[in-house]
Amino acid sequence: MSFSVLGPAAAGLAVALLVVSRILAYRKSITPYLPPGPRGLPIIGNVFDMPNSKQWLTYAEWSRQYGDICSVKILGQPLVILNSARAMEDLDRKGATYSDRPKLEMGGELVGYSKTVVLMPYGAALRNYRKHIGRLIGSASAVGKYLDIEEEETRKFLRRLSTSPNELSAQLRKLSGSLIMKMTYGIEVLANNDPFVTLVEDANNNFNIASTPGKFLVDVFPVLRFLPEWFPGGGFKTLAREWSKAFNDMVDVPYNVAWQQILTGTAPRSFVSAALENEEKITSEYIYEIKHTAGSLYGAGADTTVSAQHGFFLAMVLHPEVQKLAQAEIDAFVGPDRLPGYADREHLPYVNAVVTESLRWHNVAPLGVPHRATEDGVIDGYLIPKGAIIIANLWNMLHDPEVYPDPFTFNPSRYIGKETQRDPRHFAFGFGRRVCPGMHLADASLYICIVMSLAVFDITYAMEDGVPLVPVHENTNGTISHPKPYKYNVKPRSAKAFSLISGP
Ligand code: HEM
After folding, report:
1. Residues 216-274 pLDDT 10s
2. Out of 109, 259, 286, 390, which could bridge 371 as a Cys pair, Cβ 3.0 to 4.6 Å?
């Protein structure tokens, strides 16, 4: 299109716009600014713009207005939000700079969770802890050593579910809890009211309260941590003292049981026994490391896996056609005389695609876990200042229609054939040097739960007065987000299928 066609006024305007955009691009290249975002107020910044529920939806909206990387300031603290895979990958390439964690005064420092992997600052200690986890579950082959335990625990789960079909949620919790306690400490948990599970779940519940944004003033004004407990307003210090004891019990009690088993030569294979049995020099520092690494696994691994499994059951209620295809594949390859297991995985491409789509469709950690920049950096021409908190909107990446057309539909066929869509595992497990170290275990647990459940059960709508209750998929609030409670129905596919899960 030539200027003569536009007319002189329009041509003048076009030139002016071109010049201004060049100047802006030039200024951006020499003095980088924070990424764009909603305009805040003096001093308090964007306090009133911040959503207090389902933040990922507001951040996704901001990305449409301001772009893939946007930012806000809260009382002077910059918060950078990454809304696309490309933006996250840019930061991924400079992993060490963007892999610290923000400090949480109440939950992290006063209660003690900054001693666990998820909240540890980035540095040599974190790398050491992650190395220990890596040896336990850091690769598909490392996880391979625990597949027999996984399959056995999942069979017991199906058995329990068949007798208590309305307890899906509680039974999934038991499945993940028993597996992690066994792998980490070699502890066999009781079917009901297990004291170790109670200890760990109580401590983790305390942490969830302690880390709720805005719940404790000490997170906004860290100087308050010097307030004496008896001083008016010092009640949070009493809570912190009690919760810190619960945290220490969670770390010490199961570890001591495992240690006793090692001393008496009765320890089953576990993370703790493997770390201590063959170690020649066991120093107190080493014991501290192993204890706190072990104490990190339940909190990070149980609820997340349960959420993904919940998402799968919901998807099956809503998509009977997907369920039928997956069951037909299992029936054709495995037959009716045995339960499928991990060894069948490579022969079940559609079931695998169901696993993959489950990780995308229901997003377990919609905003991941916040990172923190340890030095100034420039990404995409924007300044990411030292100390900025970085949030990856994983939910938006997993529901980006450019990457996953029709993103709210559960469709395993996305990953089958020649032109497959991106593997959601690239996003669902976070980024940089903090990427989830439990992803291989999570993937194996999800696959085993899915393949065995589909072989044995039909998962359908619950009925009320002859009318199917059609659930809606909605994420709950929180760092780890579950599907909102939904009604369902599970029943064994046949007497033969039921017989496959018999036993204690
Ligand atoms: C479907 C299940 C799971 C999902 C979706 C998931 C997702 C995530 C995400 C998004 C993060 C934050 C990464 C980041 O900061 O960028 C994370 C961290 C972590 N996950 Fe997982 N996870 C799952 C299961 C597990 C399991 C089974 C374990 C271990 C038993 C585990 C252990 C951890 C640990 C220790 C961290 C903290 C890593 C660090 O801060 O360096 N996760 N996970």
Report:
1. 889 888 899 999 999 988 999 999 999 999 999 999 999 999 999 999 999 998 999 98
2. 390
Do both 40 and 10 map to the same domain?
A: no
Tokens of 143: 């996880």
Clarify whether residues 16 and 39 are in a common domain. Answer: no
Domain identity same for 287 and 413: yes
Q: Is 366 in the pocket of ligand 1 (CB under 6 A)?
A: no
Distances (CA, A) of 225 to 120, 229, 235, 484: 19, 9, 11, 36
Phi-psi region of 465 (alpha: psi -120 to 50; beta: other; left: phi over 0): left
- Does residue 441 line the site of ligand 1, with CB under 6 A? yes
Is there an atom of ligand 1 within 6 Å of 481 CB? no
User: Is the minimum distance from the CB of 125 to ligand 1 under 6 angstroms?
Assistant: no
Sign, CA dihedral 169-174-179-185, equals: positive
Q: pLDDT tens digits for 391-406?
A: 999 999 999 999 999 9
Q: 283 is in which domain, residue-wise?
A: 32-500
Residues 49, 12 share a domain:
no
Same domain, 426 and 320: yes
User: Which residues make up each annotated binding site for heme?
Assistant: 436
- CA distance between the termini of the chain: 78
How much distance in Å is there from the Cα of 117 to the middle of ligand 1?
A: 10
Query: Are residues 141 and 12 part of one domain?
Result: no
Q: Are 112 and 21 in a shared domain?
A: no
